[in-house]
Amino acid sequence: MDTDVVPLCCCEYFDNNNERNHILACCCSCVDFDEGVESLITGHGFPEHNKSRLMATIQDRLRIPWRGGAKQVSFDAILPVFILPLMFLLASISLWWTIFSFTAVLVILASVFRFFIKTIPQTKFFIVWTTMSIIILYIIFEFVVIPLLEILFEENVLVSVLFATFLLCFYLMKQRNNALGKIGENEAESGFVGTGTRCYICQVVVPDKDHHCVWFNCCVGRHNQCLFILALIFAIASLVYSSNLTLTSVCHPFIFYKTILLPDDCSDVYEQFELGLSFVSALYSLGLAIVLFILLLHQILLVSLGLTSKEWINLSFCAKCFLGLCSKRPHNLGFFRNWGRIMCWKRCNTYFR
What we know:
Largest sheet: 2 strands, antiparallel
Strand content: 5-15%
Number of helices: 13
Radius of gyration: 24 Å
Order of helices and strands: EEHHEEHHHHHEEEEHEEHHHHH
């Protein structure tokens, strides 16, 4: 009987070869896995082409039962959904579990970054990690920290405003990046493509591309670099402020200056699960804030000098010591014009009226 006529059951699907398959056979007949293991055992390593095809096979076979046929689930995208909550739960047990969990997460992120960027360039792992971090931190703050009744209503409102402003900048940045396909097509006729770089991940031409941010899943260039910097500023502000409010709620605070409180003694935070969870979320927020602050300083430096991230990487060590001031900078227009260029991009604004 023709398989096109027979409807799929909830556990069946058509694979990459357009053949009818069943989710129970997900671990069967994987040629790339067999070849890779054989090559690994014989001392030749796991071939890169087998890695790519193996990941494609895993993504194709990882499905959940659904009415009308099994639905595909992105393997890389679901990992943060399990890793992050597990990290917060384990880290809330004790100080040593906190150190172990944070260290394990750093190792996982480094390994995943190196593996996924090579095998799945368009992976959703990092944007899902960012989204899950935002959701978990905000939920902990609103439903665990706020009920401790140590935070004023005005302070909670300020955290929410900073958080919402960051999300707005993030949304507008993504919108501008998504519109690059249209912009690139229109400006290709006028020869503008010569000043842009095609991103092999986004598959669009990016004017004065700085870098592709995997954590935001979009390219950063002249079209949205100002929004990217604003997003970093508001993210840092919301993370630092919320973490300070959390730490002064679960730890013994002291008055630093007039009404400014800072945490002092946090030795008993692990005695209750809620306090431990709040403490861990504050540490995670501070860690993120430090990383984002370094990235913000780097972006400010590059924009001021008229350099892109790729040009900065290609500079010699001596040139970096002099901040690239003695090097060739083809995109440099001067300090004020460099900043004016990213804040007033007319080609982008014509599509966002």
